[in-house]
Fold this sequence. Notes:
The structure holds two protein chains of two kinds. By secondary structure, chain A is mainly alpha-helical. Chain A is 46% helix and 7% strand. Chain A is elongated, with a radius of gyration of 22 Å. Chain B is globular and about 55 Å long. Chain B has a three-stranded antiparallel sheet. In chain B, strand 1 and strand 2 (110-114) form a beta hairpin.
Amino acid sequence: xxxxxxxxxxxxxxxxxxxxxxxxxxxxxxxxxxxxxxxxxxxxxxxxxxxxxxxxxxxxxxxxxxxxxxxxxxxxxxxxxxxxxxxxxxxxxxxxxxxxxxxxxxxxxxxxxxxxxxxxxxxxxxxxxxxxxxxxxxxxxxxxxxxxx
Amino acid sequence: xxxxxxxxxxxxxxxxxxxxxxxxxxxxxxxxxxxxxxxxxxxxxxxxxxxxxxxxxxxxxxxxxxxxxxxxxxxxxxxxxxxxxxxxxxxxxxxxxxxxxxxxxxxxxxxxxxxxxxxxxxxxxxxxxxxxxxxxxxxxxxxxxxxxxxxxxxxxxxxxxxxxxxxxxxxxxxxxxxxxxxxxx
Lengths: 149, 185
């Protein structure tokens, strides 16, 4: 009987810790997402060069592409590094068939002359992956700024 | 009495979670921000009109509570989507079906890492040997590093379901039958 009580208390404490952690996670998640304009999870803005040359930065939507291609197509076969801004992409390479140009060539997907479909971000948007856990942890103030306008 | 109260509490939480997650008559309450309001697309861009709003595609896929609000594993397995595995005929498409139980989880439930769910999407080279070593227990992971975007956090927290979903990874209760197997198949 005494042993049973002890076990109960142990289980309770474990559950409680888990609950506290989870509540913390949920509450902090809700805190950041409430009334903030939010990009779709996994949208990557690429802006290593665009702003400097007066083009809109590029938005790459993961949700749209992963419906059609598995990660391995881009991140293994085509060699995209798993890092926002971590690939040195420019138009010469794209027209030669590298990076986005492996598909956006008029065969697998529409070709390079549709500048505005890729160059679609608000000028000045920095390179980053949107709605990431890291973005939420380190830059909640940016998210609030974005909601202010 | 303390034990009975906590049991009641757990049952209540279970009931709420259970009902809210698969209640068949509940309307789909998922919402996605339109491209006009998402804070990153330029309103002046004439091409904005021809781009697909996330809701159009994602509401047709099985629901989840976070990230894209889509259960991508289910979407793939149940054939809702058929994403291509390769562009080139010579590419070797590799899939591995093994689970790894990770036990350095403090008091939390153990982490079950499924190779199959991952290799259906990813290639071995996306994880081995840079992110993880091919030897169970040899990669020095911890939750702090993961939350910083390392190890599992490189994808979970950016593209795959986010790190706020603790129980999707911490899924094997410490005192359950599954917890005694070092590596299960």
